[in-house]
């Protein structure tokens, strides 16, 4: 069975994910992507970008900066309201988010609630709520805590609290504030979308779930601008597309679930999350939200700029409504690692194999000489590797015995392992081993490229 411990340990042992600053004892809730992690992450981003941007005529890309005008975070409501109410356990001093504790006892906290309202609900249910760390029921009052991360960028007065530049808390604000630039500089017409992938930073309080909740993370977001009358119709289309995207990514239907928000923020028309069955249970992978015209109206108000859209055909002028799809790269990597993790009994031993879909596997082809101390085998294997590496993500491996090499490639999810043996020298052929079936086929070297092309649908 896949557990958190197994995923975390394989991810580190096999070069996918390392705790940040590992030799210094780690740095809470921050992770680094190792050699295979970065390939997996790039493949995921590539699939998302192709599907969301390149395969659509009505969606364009953007890469906005992490630092933005501080007013943006006031307009977005993050300075005043981007906060999680927290309580601290008086016994073990673990801090917990109130909404998480209430969810445990099946109460949904409303994002608009004041500290007093939250404290009231909390004290009414005090007997039922336990500290997730020590199990005691001895909490402080709830306090709100802002999640934006401050910096001292460009601040030479040292007055960081009063004039902070924030690291962005979400990527979509960069999209809203460039909506007019995109409109004026390209040929988009409503309905259209702007998408971007980029880093976001949040001072997350409870960050104990591996890649699920980190303080530095990457988001893949698409904001779609629509006529107010079309908002719900387009929203339903987006929901369908996003669900299908995850099935195409290889996540099983039974591991996915829609979660409808019961308490909407005042401007939202509808909000659903796509939840994935992580090793610790179902939780949010992506948010798909219908946000009305709140975002553009706020930025129009705070910037003093007219952000309305003029329909050149009908002459109608309006502030577009926004529907959005927002997902974390890290949460997707975590979901894909969870989905791929497989244990099989082979000859009374357990084989661990990461069954990534072909287009996500960090390494597509590994090339081995059967023995490392036979120069002729090594030379031929190197030639094949040099040829294939121009078209595939390849790895050359001559370390340890062949069984160990297969086991290692299984654990990083490599689809095909090619071995050059003594027969290869006479017959100009190699064995190609399939990751999932473990079957080996003899293929002529000159046919390798077309064989792999066929397998990869190139
Ligand atoms: P949660 O309720 O889990 O805190 P959220 O509703 O605040 O998440 P959004 O602000 O809607 O999340 O962000 C959109 C997406 O960005 C989330 O669905 C998730 O995939 C990702 N994300 C948000 N916060 C984090 C984080 N701290 N670490 C990793 N990914 C995150």
Protein traits:
single chain, Herpes Virus-1, Rossmann fold, 3 domains, five-stranded mixed beta sheet, 26% strand, binds adenosine-5'-triphosphate
SSE arrangement:
Elements (H helix, E strand, L loop, with lengths): L3 H10 L3 E3 L11 E3 L1 H20 L4 E3 L8 H6 L2 H4 L1 E6 L6 E3 H7 L10 H10 L18 E4 L2 E3 L13 E3 L4 H5 L2 H7 L6 E10 L14 E11 L4 H18 L7 E5 L9 E9 L2 E10 L3 H10 L5 E2 L6 E2 L2 E8 H12 E6 L2 E6 L10 E5 L5 H14 L5 E3 L5 H11 L3 E5 L1 H6 L1 E6 L5 E5 L3 H9 L2
Parallel strand pairs: 3-9, 19-20, 19-21
Antiparallel strand pairs: 1-2, 4-5, 4-6, 7-8, 9-10, 10-16, 11-12, 12-13, 13-16, 14-15, 17-18, 21-22, 22-23
What does this structure look like?
With 458 residues, the protein is an alpha+beta fold. Helix content is 33%, strand content 26%. The protein is built from 15 helices and 23 strands. The strands form 7 sheets. It has a 7-stranded mixed β-sheet with strand order 3-9-10-16-13-12-11, with helices on both faces.
Q: According to CATH, what is the topology of the largest domain?
A: BirA Bifunctional Protein, domain 2
Q: Strand portion, in percent?
A: 25-35%
What are the segments in which pLDDT stays under 50 over at least 5 consecutive residues?
none
The major sheet is characterized as:
7 strands, mixed
What separation lies between the terminal Cα atoms?
A: 34 Å
Radius of gyration: 26 Å
